[in-house]
Records
---
Amino acid sequence: MTKKYDFKSIEKKWQTIWEQEKLFDTTIDKTKKKFFGLIEFPYPSGAGLHVGHPRSFTAMDIISRKRRMQGYNVLFPIGFDAFGLPTERYAIKAGIHPAVATKQNIENFTRQLKSMGFSFNWGGVINTTDPRYYKWTQWMFIQMFKAGLAYKGEETISWCPECKIGIANEELENGHCERCGSEVVKKKKSAWILKMQSYSDKLIEGLKSVDFPENIKKMQIDWIGKSTGSEIDFEIKDTNEKLKIFTTRPDTIFGATYMVISPEHPLIEKLSSKIKNLDAVKDYQSKASKKSDFERTQLQKNKTGVKIEGLVVINPFNKKEIPIYTSDYVLMGYGTGAIMAVPAHDDRDYEFAKKFNIPMIEVIAGGNINETAYTKDGPHINSEFLNGLNNEEAINKINTEIEKLGIGKQSVKYKMTDWVFTRQRYWGEPIPMVYCEKCGWVPLDEKDLPLTLPDVSDYMPTDEGLSPLAKATDWVNTTCPHCGGPAKRETDTMPTWAGSSWYYLRYMDPHNDKEFASKEALNYWGQVDWYEGGTEHVTRHLLYSRFWHKALYDMGLVPYDEPYKKRSVHGMILAENGEKMSKSKGNVVNPDTIVSQYGADTLRIYEMFIGPFDQAAAWSTNSMIGIYRFLNRVFDLTEKVKDIPMTQKDTQIIHQTIKDVSERIEEMKFNTAVSALMICSNYMGEKEAIPKTMMETFTKLLSPFAPHISDEMWEILGHNNRLAYENWPQYDEKALQTTSVNIVVSVNGKKRFETEIPTNLSEEETKEKILSLENVKEYIKGKNVKKVIVVPNKLVNLVI
RNA sequence: GCAGAUGUGGCGGAACAGGUAGACGCAAGGGACUUAAAAUCCCUCGGGCAUUCAAACGCCCGUGCCGGUUCGAUUCCGGCCAUCUGCACCA
């Protein structure tokens, strides 16, 4: 009787069994080695799962399933990162509560994820919008506040006029809001801020101890943007004020022909009485403030500015007077908001100087400053005591002089700013802080956590940009936890990145209502062993959560100073034409369609087969049919299984397959792992009868990729247990050996023919064997063999 | 502009401590089965030349372009070109 591969009933059957048996539910088991595999938990949008999700999820599911079979106690958890603007928007539009929308979306995601057969720890699902979860997000915020890591500041923030929300630098795309695409403007707002910049060095340093791809490390290092330079004070002539500038090239100080201060620089206000063209300066200031970040970047190549008449600084080394300009190419938010401009040796200064006809002084030889700024190394000229020195020597020398004169010091600056931890939105964690006229900002008592979101009738921010929570006056008005007097609650909520900054810790102990996770769980599960996710989160989520974790570590709350031991990244799944999949383009593929047409196992393997895991890949429903055929053939193989011993060739093939599949999973070369399985199944397909042990081993190797069909086949092969906890096959190096090998014979590097000889002949033996061949005699007849190159078991090259 | 990555058949892609280029799969063409179609199975499948009834065999070219190192280069080195990703006036 031929049994057909009926994926629908097979997948349903096994998903039900796994669920009933709670096969993948995880608890601490100290008798086993642990493995903590993590995928970035999804944002449960109304659109449902995207075909991009299964690429990453299947990869980690394969690794987790393999680890389980290798005897590890595996934690492979799932949860939902559910606070955020899209849900709030949807809720406003549909007129339902965001919590209701979230619940529906999570249900839909859960159904979809279960239909894919992922071996998640379904007993420990978390949801960042659950008060039992965000209680601990709030608790951690309070700990940071107490440790001095969170403060309320007045900050110039990027403001999206469309979303009415403050935007962190990380959420900007070319000066546009990454959500709605509007141009962002500058706005002063009071905001909660986390002192992330103070962790810059630790975040760079910590990368040494973790296994991240090099380019990911580099992206984080570049994002943090550490640069070492010097701060130098320039006296402002006829005043008591000094202009403090920051430069990485103090050695070029003799080439400074003008200074630039940012339009927001406080000195303009302070010395306004001395400025002769105050109107022009003020006018420029107001124009600059109205420019969006987008305009500023667009105008990169077209510098603007105004000379500040009436103010000059004195070069401390040659006492020359230097004029001051204000220009928005100098940013108040970086360094000291002021620079010394050396047009001969800096591209930006060069451009500005050309436009404003400012003279240049060449101080490093080697370039041609008539054409372009020279920014490379060379001997210093026109620089008094620095003449003749190279860049490094000159920098050291000038720094010594600067310190001797007491006019500055070496200093380190970072591009990465502190984390603006405030959103004027409803659908986020309430910030557990209260403002009291007498006591200032006071955190809630921990026993009063969680501080839950109040019910409000409308989720729009106020026109002044206050969070909708401000409208819930009953909720806002409270008493001070410190003095008991009247006080008001903070009405801003936390950004989306809050809940995701520590979720992996909650996974270790998801139901604990005494602590965010017990010490026992934190110690047992330790670091995340392998964290799989997308590149788009490298400078946002990944950096935030590393910071958050390090802060917890410094407070003694977690036992390791880095959360993730190893990180891998996957490429995006693109639409068939190579474009990004997006709702607006209408080219989104819904995994549900594929699962119902071909089955989850086919979709899983297809996504692994589609191309190199770390590279982008274009979807092709057409190509998926090949995987479906493969699984059908594999299923049919069970009919040919007999209780017979394996031949030597069988042994060699199956051991080669064990080796290839095992190694390639570890290297995330899933596409070639699948092809190794195909080669093995093609081989078995040609046989009259397949030895049972061979088929069993093959089924085990297939199971992480296609768990449903594998458990079904395992049952057909006469087993009544689950493959998930069977032993992962081991290969034997000796079994891989063949008795004869093909040797390529080439002449002068060109392949001529191949021939079979016994395996493992020595170089001498191979040479003899080959030279005695009739073919070879033909080729070398009448010619002079200069050299014979032998690569044992591979090739012989005759040089004639 | 800076940094990183990638360029291989009609397509997705294999093979890189230098050693048979095109594994595996898709598409295409031919055949078998069928009344027919689908499904399935078998064969062919980078380009060119010559030979042949036909096939095999044979020879030449071919891994973005130009050069170099080497007995031998998709792989290493130098210089270009193109595409993608990240960052972007950070002094």
---
Amino acid sequence: MVEYSSPNTNKPLHLGHIRNNLLGASVSQLLTSAGYQVHKTQIINDRGIHICKSMVAWKAMGNGETPESTGEKGDALVGRYYVAFDTTYKKQLAELIASGIHEEEAKSQVPIQLEAQEMLRAWEAGNETVRALWAKMNAWVYDGFAETYQELGVSFDSYYYESDTYLLGKDIVDQGLSSGMFLQKDDGSVWCDLSDEGLDEKLVLRADGTSVYITQDLGTAVLRYKDHPDMNGMVYTVGNEQDYHFKVLFLILNKLGYNWASQLHHLSYGMVDLPSGKMKSREGTVVDADGLMQEMRDTAQNIASSLGKLDGLDKQEKNELYRHIGIGALKYYILKVDPTKRILFNPKESVDFNGNTGPFIQYAYARIQSIVKQSNNLKGNIYMEITLDQKEKELLKWLELYPQTIQNAAEQYSPALIANYVYELVKRFNSYYQKVVILSDDEHTRQFRVRLASQVGYVIQSGMGILGIECPEQM
RNA sequence: GGUCGCGUAGCUCAGCUGGAUAGAGCAUCUGCCUUCUAAGCAGCCGGUCAUAGGUUCGAUUCCUAUCGCGAUCACCA
């Protein structure tokens, strides 16, 4: 089972989520190619103070707006009210401070913040009005997310909602207490002593008996193994800022005696940063996923129309093509980088379409298909003696490495290895293509070269498929 | 401060588990479209692989230290 995505339901997805989704989806595909049966899942953070903030702001300022009434994507609408909350919060805080209240004290008195906290309490108490509003606004967000996922080309086999699972894990804490793995302090809080592992004590249950993050994760891990008893491994696609959390989580599960704890893997990836530093939604320094994808499509369209190679296609076919090329460029750009390394994304420098890029590879594929179509009178197996060109030898050698590359990439959970392999393959092929005429006049030579090209095309398509990138027949 | 991760060309990155003159792309410059799609190919320029030690026949790769950058060390998720 591979888990990825894990969005909060109070704002639209951004570039960080794109990396998460692409990695998770691609690793799933990679593991499938390596022979595993994969189940893709996501956990959705649909409850908490963040969504309450959007709810409070929408109630106060929304005038009953809906995605239908504004024509806006649902997640964008809810995100707008999250921002509105923050704006109001800052304004009210400034007013309090101006009236002579100390900053620390003022922070605990901001009216809209108190409202949000009150709403969270009402939500937890099961208040029907609050729950209804919550369900309505989350539904808007899910519709918006669904659009984004579809555009991005990622999918899931199942969903876990935090509102269903946030109370899980308490049984496990009880078990831990009775087995002596956990200890309870005087105030009632429960801890796991990890000092023998060189770590500190870790809180697993609050003094008031409520769950913390790790309590839930203990619970959902056990739940997932109950839901999928045959499962022999689980991959958590989560940023490396949570390395410590997962280290602790796996250790505790191991201490509790779950024999599958050793099969858990944290697919830890680097953050996507901007030249200005970390993306912060509150400061508006995020690269919006939908906006970026649209930009990529537009760029693909601009390049294609200036090259004018697509005259034979109708409008719908062209749009599909722009999507495959634009999104392909984005996916390749993200996935070609070693997952463990952070990505520096400069919005001012658009993603390339030349060089080591998705379109470069797609283009090679399209040229190959064009050749194969012009020579579709291939006969059965032919044994022939031909002298191999040096570049043909290199190509054949490289093609042979593909299966092993998949295995290595799967072992390392690294789609980047596939991307680099395919890039090297295409480099070799392009060089060959330049040097040699594939549609040779000599029948035997032509047969061989077309087959070789066709095989290269097959591997390109397969490799790009692992990255979730379509290879158009023409571009 | 403790822990973890990262420092390779002006920029973005490869370098597969230690092996020969460290490779690409972008950017600058130079060639190549009346034969299969020039989103391509060929070439020029560009590196003290952060620094200093150590292990080894051999280190960008492994170890240690130092410097720099980032993350984390919440009764937030």
